[in-house]
């Protein structure tokens, strides 16, 4: 039975979420403070995290950032903050979904199940495979540094491969061009961030069925790029 962590300081909302999740076949724990929620989230005991943003002690943004640095566990923000900038910031820190309050309990559970299913498809038994990654119709052999699309090997340059592997290893997380440039090309690399745009375009040509309508390597307008599960 999969365990869900609810980080929510409103006891009524938290208990309703817990009751509905348990009625749907999950177990759930509640943390009503940000510091407690962060400690529990980093314990590695949870299959998914439901995260409020406005919390005492440590806010949800900081929790999201610190958990994502340590784990790829799905994080679903559940918040009354409706501004687009709040959503963009949440996705930019690595949240997998953003659900507005008030919310439908049925929709909440449906999204929980969908994200758990996507995560399970990626990690299989619950652990990242060391030698290969399988996502959609893409297989990456990390030992041989080879990429297969529909089981046909597709040639990648060194930087194209590094960029694809980095994005795939951090699914659903949005990265700014500056971050990708620093991670892949290095802080002291010469060039500009247009290099990232060019390489993203080349990735799409090689892994997308329709590069003009990308499903996997997505542009999050005004923020950056992410690889969708």
Automatic annotation (TrEMBL):
Response regulatory domain location: 3-116
Record-annotated OmpR/PhoB-type domain positions: 130-229
UniProt record, GO biological process: regulation of DNA-templated transcription
Record-linked PROSITE patterns: OMPR_PHOB, RESPONSE_REGULATORY
Chief place of localization: cytoplasm
Keywords of the record: DNA-binding, Phosphoprotein, Transcription, Transcription regulation, Two-component regulatory system
DNA-binding region: 130-229
Compartment(s) where it occurs, according to its Swiss-Prot or TrEMBL record: Cytoplasm
A Pfam family matched in the record: Trans_reg_C
Keyword Phosphoprotein: yes
Origin superkingdom: Bacteria
A GO term, aspect molecular function: phosphorelay response regulator activity
Coiled coil: none
PTM sites of type 4-aspartylphosphate: 52
GO CC field: cytosol; protein-DNA complex
Signal peptide annotation: none
Protein name: DNA-binding response regulator
Organism: Paenibacillus montanisoli
């Amino acid at each position: 039975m999969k365990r869900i962590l609810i980080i929510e300081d409103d006891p009524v909302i938290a208990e309703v979420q817990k009751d509905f999740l348990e009625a749907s076949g999950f177990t759930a724990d509640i943390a009503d403070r940000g510091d407690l929620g962060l400690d529990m989230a980093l314990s590695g005991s949870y299959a998914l995290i439901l995260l409020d943003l406005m919390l005492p002690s440590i806010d949800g943004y900081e929790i999201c950032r610190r958990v994502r640095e340590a784990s790829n566990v799905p994080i679903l923000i559940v918040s009354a903050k409706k501004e687009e900038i709040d959503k963009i910031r949440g996705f930019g820190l690595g949240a997998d979904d953003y659900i507005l309050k008030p919310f439908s309990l049925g929709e909440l559970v449906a999204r929980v199940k969908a994200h758990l299913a996507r995560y399970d498809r990626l990690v299989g038994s619950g652990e990242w495979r060391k030698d290969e990654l399988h996502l959609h119709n893409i297989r990456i052999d990390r030992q041989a540094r080879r990429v297969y699309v529909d089981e046909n090997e597709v040639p990648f340059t060194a930087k194209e491969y590094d960029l694809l592997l980095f994005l795939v290893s951090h699914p659903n997380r949005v990265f700014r061009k500056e971050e990708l440039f620093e991670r892949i090309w290095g802080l002291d690399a010469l060039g500009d961030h247009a290099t990232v745009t060019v390489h993203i375009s080349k990735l799409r040509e090689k892994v997308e069925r329709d590069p003009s309508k990308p499903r996997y390597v997505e542009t999050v307008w005004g923020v950056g790029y992410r690889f969708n599960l």
